[in-house]
Design a protein that fits this description.
The protein is of the alpha/beta class. The protein has 10 helices and 7 strands. Helix 3 crosses helix 6. The structure holds S-adenosylmethionine.
């Protein structure tokens, strides 16, 4: 049985996530997770969008739309999209809030370059800006954003607590955090099919089409190890958020989490 599944019974979710030794993309001995994650996303940046939409059968568009609909804040003006990657969530936010200023931050400059070219093509440079940066050390003052979002990013954080506490710090009081992340379906049959697809099909396609086959092995390991559902809600609460809720999508293979900074 996978180490995470065993330890899940014995330790609080935070400890499980920190204890798991299999979480780095390349498992090199002389680099930390953040360095490896940055390297990996820079390597796969060129094929990221295509593979994302192809491997999910286009459902990822629907997931991001649903995540944006979860935003409850009335007419947010300043929105942070952390781990923005190539900017798909930032673009979706812009569709709903065309007058908001959206800042996308990501570790991987090559992902951001692709995001920037998409924004340029659509003439949205005034509404969406990108910056290379780290979720665990956000280069902004406290209490500045109405809303913060993270799509498929928190699973890759080196220090999940620090990343969430930093997001809490930069949100205004009562500001909302919306997180979209893969999760494990609870139905045993679906869970078996999902794991089989993730373990056997997805890495094969990733191997053929991407420059970095290890990335797609890492995807499966990191989704399995991630403390999803109630475990993540507990982590959100411990990081200073209240009114935390989760909404599983598509048989539970993806989940939207929401929490508010205390007033
Ligand atoms: C799977 S991609 C998601 C991109 C985008 N949000 C989307 O919906 O397609 C994960 C992104 O998280 C970024 N990332 C991981 N750890 C990060 C950190 N500590 N700070 C900022 N970005 C980070 C990676 O560089 C990568 O671009």
């Amino acid at each position: 049985m996978h180490l995470t599944l065993i330890t899940r019974w014995w330790f609080p979710p935070k400890i499980i996530f920190l204890l798991n030794p299999e979480l780095k993309p390349y498992q090199l001995s002389d680099t930390n997770k953040k360095e490896e994650v940055g390297t990996m996303f820079n390597r796969i940046a060129g094929t990221y969008d295509f593979l994302n939409h192809f491997l999910s059968g286009g459902v990822d568009f629907y997931w991001r739309k649903k995540a944006v609909k979860t935003i409850k804040t009335d007419q947010p003006q300043h929105i942070l999209d952390m781990a923005t990657g190539t900017g798909d969530l930032a673009l979706e936010i812009n569709k709903r809030y065309p007058s908001a200023q959206i800042l996308g931050i990501d570790l991987a400059d090559k992902m951001i370059e692709i995001g920037e070219s998409k924004i340029k093509r659509k003439g949205l440079e005034k509404n969406i800006r990108f910056e290379v940066g780290d979720s665990e050390n956000i280069n902004r003052s406290s209490n500045v954003f109405d809303v913060a979002t993270v799509a498929f990013g928190v699973r890759n954080y080196q220090n999940l607590d620090k990343g969430l506490t930093e997001l809490n710090r930069v949100l205004k009081p009562s500001g909302q955090l919306v997180v979209l992340e893969f999760s494990m379906p609870k139905n045993p049959l679906l869970s078996t099919i999902y794991q089989w697809y993730f373990k056997n099909i997805l890495p094969q396609i990733g191997r053929i089409t991407s420059k970095d086959p290890a990335a797609y092995d890492y995807l499966f390991r990191s989704v399995q190890a991630f403390p999803d559902g109630q475990n993540f809600l507990d982590i959100l609460s411990a990081s200073g958020f209240e009114k935390c809720t989760c909404n599983p999508l598509t048989f539970g293979i993806c989940t939207i989490y929401s929490g508010f900074k205390k007033p």
